[in-house]
Amino acid sequence: MYSTLLTELANGTLVITINRPDKMNALNKDVIADLDKALDEVYNNAEIKTAIITGAGEKAFVAGADISEFLSLDEKGGSTLAKAGQDMVFNKIENCPKPVIAAVNGFALGGGCELAMSCHFRIASANAKFGQPEVNLGLIPGYGGTQRLTQLVGKGKAMELMMTADMIGADEAKTLGLVNHIVALEELIGKAKEILQKIHTKAPVAVAKVIACVNDAAKCVPAGFDNEIARFGECFTTEDMKEGTSAFLEKRKPVFKGK
Ligand code: COA
């Protein structure tokens, strides 16, 4: 049914596993399209009460948007990619009336960190690592990271993380409030299911209203997401973006010129 996802429905919880482990589960166009469809299933299938998003393998949750799709894009292509992803996946998760949680099983970088942050809350395995390393590529986050990271961890830490491209481990992520629980990798999905089973005993209409109201309380500046999409697109006009993405794909360090 999906070319890039594995899905399993049991006891009212749909586990959605992004399944490109040889590419660190990077989000290419096919993954975005499949996630869009899977989320429609979560919205519309009455048997699904809650969902878990996780990554295949033991190394990565999602190591970002697929960098190999960036090189051919211009400004319009860059902003269209960001807007389509936000509409099809990230905002759809955030606004889902049924709880959707991230079970972060390894690297959650760039679009992977953004995917986890769009979920209603996050639990992580001890080996999880979070970061927004886009400046290494001459880019900025484009799937809502400038907004949601700032909202979740505060302005100062968000600035530092996005300017340095530093990765943080599960412990620091928990201290910052980015994740709620840390468990051993082999216990991750079990722990996620256990929390969701507890939520299944509560009134679904009330739970949906909690999601809507907490989202309202945590609303980012409305224009923030649109500005991010536009600024992300502008990065695609720069020499530094071509250098950063080429350097990653050629497995070398980039040399930026500020152009
Ligand atoms: N897009 C496309 N391909 C990616 C990718 C991404 N975001 N992240 C990893 N891959 C690919 C690698 O190119 C490599 O492919 P190859 O085997 O065909 O060469 C494969 O996944 C394994 O990654 P590799 O870098 O060899 O693994 P590692 O263990 O040395 O490093 C990471 C793991 C996650 C630290 C590293 O892959 C990385 O930094 N990824 C990019 C993170 C990023 O910048 N994300 C933001 C994107 S906007």
Summarize the entry for a quick read:
This protein is α/β, with parallel strands linked by helices and 259 residues long.
- CA-based shape: globular
Here the CATH topology of the largest domain equals 2-enoyl-CoA Hydratase, Chain A, domain 1
Mean pLDDT: 97
**What is the CATH architecture descriptor of the largest domain?**
Alpha-Beta Complex
Largest sheet: 6 strands, mixed
Count of domain modules: 2
Describe, in plain words, how this protein is organized in 3D.
The chain is of the alpha/beta class and 259 residues long. The chain folds into two domains: 5-200, Alpha-Beta Complex (2-enoyl-CoA Hydratase, Chain A, domain 1); 204-249. The protein contains ten helices and ten strands. It has helices at residues 29-44, 75-94, 111-118, 145-153, 155-164, 170-175, 188-200, 204-217, 222-235, 239-249, and strands at residues 5-10, 13-18, 50-55, 60-62, 100-104, 107-109, 121-125, 129-131, 168-169, 181-183. Strands 1-2-3-5-7-10 form a six-stranded mixed β-sheet, sandwiched between helices. Helix 1 (29-44) packs parallel to helix 2 (75-94) and helix 3 (111-118) packs across helix 4 (145-153). The protein binds coenzyme A. Coenzyme A binds next to strand 6.
What would the keywords be for this entry?
10 strands, 2-enoyl-CoA Hydratase, Chain A, domain 1, alpha/beta, 259 residues, binds coenzyme A, 47% helix
Annotate the secondary structure layout.
Blueprint: E1 5-10, E2 13-18, H1 29-44, E3 50-55, E4 60-62, H2 75-94, E5 100-104, E6 107-109, H3 111-118, E7 121-125, E8 129-131, H4 145-153, H5 155-164, E9 168-169, H6 170-175, E10 181-183, H7 188-200, H8 204-217, H9 222-235, H10 239-249
Parallel strand pairs: 2-3, 3-5, 4-6, 5-7, 6-8, 7-10
Antiparallel strand pairs: 1-2, 8-9
